[in-house]
Design brief:
single chain
């Protein structure tokens, strides 16, 4: 069973471009880990949200990727650069 997530982020306008770069860097790190099938950064058509989408071959691979983020030089902190909390939806294949 494959697993994944869709995370929607709502950066302040003045942090938008930097936030897109942050999410792209996180996706790079995730893609470099074993078992990650895809990791992408999207922007909504209205530009209000940045969406990260990732998919793994298993829950164990996802967990390993998340641990790898902890030791990578990436910024995943939620802080005042975002206007509202992130919305994260966990997915499992049917």
């Amino acid at each position: 069973m494959t697993v994944g997530f869709v995370a929607t982020h709502y950066p302040h306008t003045d942090h938008h471009d930097a936030f897109v770069s942050r999410v792209q860097r996180v996706a790079e790190v995730l893609r470099s880990t074993p078992g990650c099938l895809a990791a992408e950064c999207w922007v909504t058509a209205d530009g209000d949200a940045v969406v990260s989408i990732a998919r793994w071959e298993s829950e164990a691979a996802q967990a390993a990727s998340m641990r790898a983020l902890g030791s990578a030089d990436v910024d995943v902190a939620f802080d005042d650069r975002e206007v509202r909390p992130r919305e994260i939806v966990q997915l499992v294949s049917a």
